[in-house]
Amino acid sequence: AQKVTQAQTEISVVEKEDVTLDCVYETRDTTYYLFWYKQPPSGELVFLIRRNSFDEQNEISGRYSWNFQKSTSSFNFTITASQVVDSAVYFCALSELIQGAQKLVFGQGTRLTINP
Amino acid sequence: GAVVSQHPSRVICKSGTSVKIECRSLDFQATTMFWYRQFPKQSLMLMATSNEGSKATYEQGVEKDKFLINHASLTLSTLTVTSAHPEDSSFYICRGKTGTEAFFGQGTRLTVV
After folding, report:
1. Is A19 in contact with A13 (CB distance < 8 Å)?
2. Does pLDDT of A96 surpass 90?
3. Is the CB of A101 less than 8 angstroms away from the CB of B32?
4. A26-38 per-position pLDDT tens digit
5. Is A73 exposed, middle or buried (0-12, 13-18, 19+ CB in 10 A)?
6. Do A45 and B104 make contact, defined as CB atoms within 8 angstroms?
């Protein structure tokens, strides 16, 4: 069965520090998608990135970067020069194809607190 | 990007009553709608998957008679929590899918008192 593990339950850093959120996944599918979402206190899920299993290129978007390594089944997320507004719960998710649908399986989430 | 409008954003209801949550895809046709539930400080868990015009498929442990899902059109899906109890208090969120793209609604925070 597909599974996503975010081993870090909570992380707390001081503003301007770099922080990496880990994500390890398990799947038997050869074709799959990996996602990161941000969930601020208001609750909505903010889409950050989607990566398909055939694209191992690292991605950078402003202060955000993602490192996808199929060899270790990891899809880690780094925030550079963190800011207080980055405080939120971050979820890594895996999209599995079951019976024609594409279900998302979420990790447990990492609560990130950026202190001023 | 495409938008899924979910209402209400917050609702408080008395124990034993029913609550209906709506998700509308505003600028695309959602052939599939996924419904998730998130208890406080926990992850999101899939409750059910519905395809337009078909009966929903529920995940193991989710009572289909308690959580009624209707997906009668490509732009509207509803989740009705029947005879709600305090343990049903949770954050419910839908995700509409079209092709290979899918989009979340804003979520509904349900409190049963």
Report:
1. yes
2. no
3. yes
4. 998 888 999 999 9
5. middle
6. yes
